[in-house]
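Researcher: For the record, we're logging two predictions in this thread. I'll number them. Prediction 1 follows.
Model: Prediction 1, sequence and structure:
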Amino acid sequence: MDRPSREVLRRMPLAEGVLLLWRWATSEERLEGLWNRTRGRCYEKIISFSLMVHLIADALLHYEGSGRRSFQKNIESGELEATLAAAYGKLGRLPIPLSQEFLRECTAALRGAFPVWAEWELPRSIRGLRVIILDGKAIKRVAKRLKRLRGIPGGLLGGRALVAIDWSTGLAVAMHADADGDANDVRFVPTLVPVVRQEVSGPRLWLADRAFCDLSQPAHFTAERGDHFLVRYHPKVKFYADSTRPERRGKTEKGLDYVEQWGWLGGERDKRRRYVRRIQLVRPGNEDVILVTDLLDADVYPAEDLLWLYSERWGIEQVFQKVTEVFGLQRLIGGTPQACIFQFAFCLLLYNMIQVVRGYIAEGQDREPEEISLENLFDDVERQLTAWNVMFEPQATVNYFQCLPDDPAALQARLRALLGSAWSETWVKSPHQEHHGKTPRKRTRSHNSVYRILHPHWRRERRRMSKAP
């Protein structure tokens, strides 16, 4: 079919909406600019960066995460004029800064299309702050396709990334990645925080787990005036209570007791010492939750609101789970850290895109976004995209989306018209089930870093090539 008919389009609103967002976020001009700025020593000969993005999209959306099938189908259709080895090699050499900027810039385009109606609302006391959640993610289950990886016991790590999530929209706005899967992601904070500040206007509240509780990170979090932090306390940093300020006690809505104290993190001789407020939630039968923050005024920022906000940090773990199980990170296409990190950035972008689609559907149905299941919605998106791919030639799709909206407001109006009336009862999320405890494991799984296995080999190869005549 050369051109989609109205009847066909009426039956595939999800496919049209996703393709419209995809063309908007990954336009040829944007991808070309990304490549020129961050390609490093890489070059384009036959396989361009935009073509590689198209190949990975086909693999994740149409071929169940199989890069081989995607490459073969595109070779058959004439889109890819290279061998399988060349395609895998190109994917395995993509620079890590390119993957980071790919996520940042494409997500910035999606944020302009995100419906304001679907943004989550904070408690009144902290409504003036933009909450940014930070957490690290190790990319696991690398396939042992490379010769140097065969026969190595245990699992393999294909890299590690520190990701920043905007709580109000649920979008992953930026990440900083490293090829070493065993790297400590806390040391990425000084690099990632300035990038997030460029994307999300302040003032901001940085929310992180106990791994980020030390005497160095608060300086990065509060480097810009108006920014604050809320992190879980770690006993590796000593807390010295202020004897001149009495502690306060209270109860949460669930009847749990909490204690508030003021004092210093770090000893008197440490120049990084900082005056903080410490909130301890007593949980009988479980580990206490202890938070530290520079929001010192307990009347302006009640402890109940801060304890509730920290419980929302679990949302970033759910993001990682969905990116892995729903959006294709569970089946890694490449075997090098560079390929794994690019696929991770790609899966995060897919997650962001479906978040935008869910926002418009929730607005049209007057529902809360979290009432709609991302898994079930993405299943129907994949089904409609597959049907679209079968019915229309690639050039017909390109021609149909040739004229994109002029600005984000026009894009929002078109998405609202497309997705506002789309609905299926199968998208309703199942009711929450009580947690029944951890499932016991018979053995612990060990992991090795692909980077640490391949890096000595790469150094030997460079040394050998430098000595060759």
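Researcher: Logged. Prediction 2.
Model: Prediction 2, sequence and structure:
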Amino acid sequence: MVDGPKIVIIGAGSASFGLENLGGIMQHEALKGSTLALCDTNEGNLELVTALANRMNEEWNANMLITSTSNRREVLPDADFVILSVAVDREETWIKDHEIGLKHGIWHYAENGGPGSFGHTARGLAFIMPILYDIHDLAPDAWIINFTNPVPRIQYAANYANVKCVSYCHQIWHGYSIVGRIMAEDLGITDHLDWVFAWTDESYEKQGLYTVKAVLEYNILAAGLNHFTWMTDIRRQETGDDLYPVIRENALKLPYNFEPLTQDVFRTFGLLPIPGDCHLCEYLPFTYTKENWTHYNIALYDFDRGAKKRDQMWQEIYDMVRGKRTLAYLISNPFNRGEAIIAGILTNANSYEPALNVTNNGAISNLPNDAVVEVPVILNRTNASGLRMGALPEGIAALCQREISIAKLITKASIHGDREAALQAFVLMVDDFKLAETLLEEYIQTHKNYLPQFFK
């Protein structure tokens, strides 16, 4: 007998959804007895994930009804929640987006901001819009929990399709690690003071130390846009003391090789940004020169490491399915919030999430009401309401407004195959009409097999 909600996971076989998210959903007390429908077009990956889910279900007494299919329309009817975590040839195309920029003298991360983000958004929405329309038609009351990048643009597309959606990104926890490093002495951390972010296991291990200790001691309120949020308030959990004066003082003592772009932005605009240099640079076009990219030592995503980690993940799944590895390390990670978001809505709990992407509706008073913003959110059965965060400082609001306009234009272009909207976005990103035209056409032609909307 199944008496819980119906949860559909589209992209269940993707690396981005992750084992810890699946483990969190299957262990959460409020979600036991759910129907769990796993969906992915990669039938080999889907078969392995389904077998693993069945093992979890049995060992953890989750009492779930588990089904799987490559046809989402079979499982969407009556869905209460739809988790969206999908990508096609993500890293292969991402490399090309970066290389197109380099060809024209643009050094950029090429994922969620800058010229390369056009390719990322347009490719994604080419196959995500039909999913959103199916959800609208077959599961009109369902909540979408989106994990797919570029997060705000998928959220804009969900709004366009008139479906309920919140989008989650874990980047706020990087902000806690930055605060942890600034407050290392207060936290009693004397080792690993040489930590700087890099795409290595060693760096992640050191970062995790700072993150966990900071989360236990401090509370951060942040507001802005995804990968572009700003710490508006930082307090000690136990006493409520305002820590910003100490943080401003301590930040002056940091070695410059620790998040140097973050340090410069903090000194200039007065609020500490959350995302770290790798993502902060995406929305600051002055970093797109070779000189500034080198000066700030931006750590481009390590594609080789990503491929190895993905292969490792599938080997772990295979080993767990064959009983060669325990499920112990899949105990829910508190920083992956999928299960908590679902449970908050399901139980009508008015639960608090420190960072979700939702429609602004006045949460940030000096940004447009229809903008997709990342703010603390209260969740219940009928709404995902951003906390009223007030106004951002004028300079920061101006930076955010520029990115909002770019995101709206690229989303419009990606849904409708609208070259005019896309060109306007490129002009905002590179400030050069001829270069904007050249880049737009090159991205479209390079990825034409993924972009049917531009070749109607």
